[in-house]
Hints:
The structure holds two protein chains of two kinds.
Chain A: H1 13-16, H2 24-48, H3 53-66, H4 68-93, H5 101-118, H6 125-154, H7 158-181, E1 188-191, H8 211-228, H9 230-240, H10 242-247, H11 252-269, H12 271-279, E2 281-283, H13 290-300, H14 305-324, H15 331-358
Antiparallel strand pairs in A: 1-2
Helix pairs in contact in A: 2-3, 2-15, 3-4, 3-14, 4-8, 4-11, 4-13, 4-14, 5-6, 5-7, 5-11, 5-12, 5-13, 6-7, 6-11, 8-9, 8-14, 13-14, 13-15, 14-15
Chain B: E1 2-10, E2 13-23, E3 28-32, H1 39-46, E4 54-59, E5 62-64, H2 71-76, E6 79-82, H3 94-99, H4 110-124, H5 139-152, E7 157-161, H6 169-184, E8 188-193, H7 196-202, E9 205-210, E10 213-219, H8 223-226, H9 231-239, E11 258-267, E12 270-278, E13 282-286, H10 293-301, E14 308-313, E15 316-317, H11 323-328, E16 331-334, H12 338-342, H13 349-353, H14 358-361, H15 368-382, H16 398-410, E17 417-421, H17 429-444, E18 448-452, H18 456-462, E19 465-470, E20 473-479, H19 480-484, H20 488-497
Parallel strand pairs in B: 3-8, 3-9, 6-7, 7-8, 13-18, 13-19, 16-17, 17-18
Antiparallel strand pairs in B: 1-2, 1-4, 4-5, 9-10, 11-12, 11-14, 14-15, 19-20
Helix pairs in contact in B: 4-5, 9-20, 15-16, 16-17
Amino acid sequence: xxxxxxxxxxxxxxxxxxxxxxxxxxxxxxxxxxxxxxxxxxxxxxxxxxxxxxxxxxxxxxxxxxxxxxxxxxxxxxxxxxxxxxxxxxxxxxxxxxxxxxxxxxxxxxxxxxxxxxxxxxxxxxxxxxxxxxxxxxxxxxxxxxxxxxxxxxxxxxxxxxxxxxxxxxxxxxxxxxxxxxxxxxxxxxxxxxxxxxxxxxxxxxxxxxxxxxxxxxxxxxxxxxxxxxxxxxxxxxxxxxxxxxxxxxxxxxxxxxxxxxxxxxxxxxxxxxxxxxxxxxxxxxxxxxxxxxxxxxxxxxxxxxxxxxxxxxxxxxxxxxxxxxxxxxxxxxxxxxxxxxxxxxxxxxxxxxxxxxx
Amino acid sequence: xxxxxxxxxxxxxxxxxxxxxxxxxxxxxxxxxxxxxxxxxxxxxxxxxxxxxxxxxxxxxxxxxxxxxxxxxxxxxxxxxxxxxxxxxxxxxxxxxxxxxxxxxxxxxxxxxxxxxxxxxxxxxxxxxxxxxxxxxxxxxxxxxxxxxxxxxxxxxxxxxxxxxxxxxxxxxxxxxxxxxxxxxxxxxxxxxxxxxxxxxxxxxxxxxxxxxxxxxxxxxxxxxxxxxxxxxxxxxxxxxxxxxxxxxxxxxxxxxxxxxxxxxxxxxxxxxxxxxxxxxxxxxxxxxxxxxxxxxxxxxxxxxxxxxxxxxxxxxxxxxxxxxxxxxxxxxxxxxxxxxxxxxxxxxxxxxxxxxxxxxxxxxxxxxxxxxxxxxxxxxxxxxxxxxxxxxxxxxxxxxxxxxxxxxxxxxxxxxxxxxxxxxxxxxxxxxxxxxxxxxxxxxxxxxxxxxxxxxxxxxxxxxxxxxxxxxxxxxxxxxxxxxxxxxxxxxxxxxxxxxxxxxx
Lengths: 359, 506
């Protein structure tokens, strides 16, 4: 029984417990504790599989870091996860839990590939690259905006809508691929214009490419917007306390829609890594899993842009390292650890904060 | 029936200081007092919802151990309570709520209980539908259901915590009649209220709480028939007419322009309210919480939708303007709850002082130097402690947090009008003085200041004029000499509580 016309009760509590507190050192501690939990859990699993954890871990480190190709794969993975991690972190910073980065990546991959294929073969890079990036950002941003608009105007919870949109987007992408893009019986579309391709960075022929630079620029841009501009001030205010933001004249709904659009655009740009930097074509399932890993990166990185980038490297290492030791332990084990990261960090954050409050 | 002397602390604050209440069996006992006087706390302890820190409690002549007194023991002793905000699980039916937590075994005998509830309800004049979903009921019906459920559990003492706050007038009359009937059949009733017309209509005895202590008791039994109830005496006891006279405030110029006007504003609990504030004038809105104060403040700032009427700021109609437009046109807003709407608790003092203040931060890129220097200025001006712009606001005391809100809002450039809701609620005395000084200074600089407060002492100390809001309407006003006179407090108190037999219109 709320009285007519009164502001509706804010529903950011759900995202609130995931949000980091005000003390950066405490948040770093939470991330480290979470990593220790992950290592401990992984070690237990290795013991259960009959392997010596110390041996497996050191094998994972030496093989991955010792092999330029595997190291490159870590960076390739981290590039995409950094961008989706930034997307999730940006939204959480504004009190919204965007778990739709998965669908936004797919939308970006599709749009990026379609524009890349459509461009004439002779299009110079200075035109082709920005156009493809723009298409990817616009497609991801549109999906994000839809979530934001539904939340603000209809009160639909963003977690529900983004889950639903994930499957819709993946379905639509597959349908479009089947209908128009895939070549005779395959699940791969045509090659994009050469001008839209991003150069590889070597590393023993691994997939890491120049979109790593785009990801680093995105980290810097989000950091600057967040800490140095009135926009960042507004979105963090909305995340911390929507009613306080409203009472000082911030239009909460507009900020939420803009942030969800920006979040979707960041996830969409991850397509650069997959389409422009690696496969050079639309492929079924391309970029899959990056959105979900982005959630882990955002949480482990404690929503801080630089933290997200570091967390993306850690997750990329776990993911590629798992493959490197697949002959010793099943790769499902390390895949499972990526899930444990989310649980561990979600528990460690509030725990560290509560302990601080008690002492 | 009940003899209690109870002390209760929340943290370091003592909300009950050996508060006494003595209730005779088969009577209707009214417990009255201002907001924060400790009424709810006292009845919750008796009902076993809260624990007392010290004191004695005797139920029906048997002394009980207050340290071990809880809801289960209280229920066994026949004490039922209908709490202020209801305590029903919304998705369960009335009958399921009635047996919730009291059924003997795992198998529910709902049909028989439903039948019994319905019969009991009809018998006492509180008709209910036992199978209705509790969350779907109107507040009046939900309350009836809770009362019947309490009686069904064998309540010999029924405690009602502000039962009429949520009811329409016609429902209030019905409830009061039922309470009289219940008392006549032997049930003892304790009703918490601050509306004196209800007290007069229903109570045999009255206990008045003020600041956690019992300050007066009245026996209305003989008086009720001849309606010689001295309502004014109860009002005086509630608001404490024995306090020293407030300080004088410089009057605004006679030709001062109206800078803030609300015209025939209706929204939610506010009905057709109009008021004007002139430049340099401090106007108080007195009233018990929940009589439309919240809606009035939100309507002026533009934080509420679906409003009828107009709001003028500096002579301009801003009814359709966004909150941001109103704030940049020189409106300052001190919200009623600094923890929900006033501050970002996990941000620094400096960031909170610059929140939404484009004149400090710059439009786009934040001018960090100005944010810091602004923070240092405000901290010095208001004596915020700690005097560290980087301190996190959550760690500050309530008074210092409120200083941050006041500092941000009253330092707005070209201040035209101020809406301050409960500006010193839960704030220590030192901070109260600082905040009052700032509000006076804003008026001296030519702003029109509207102070909405449940604390009459605060309004008398600050205001040139005080209007009283009751059930969403402005029911009276006092200004000038009439406000300074010795009986102003009692007169306003009477208006606030809705007792109409005292003529106070100035």
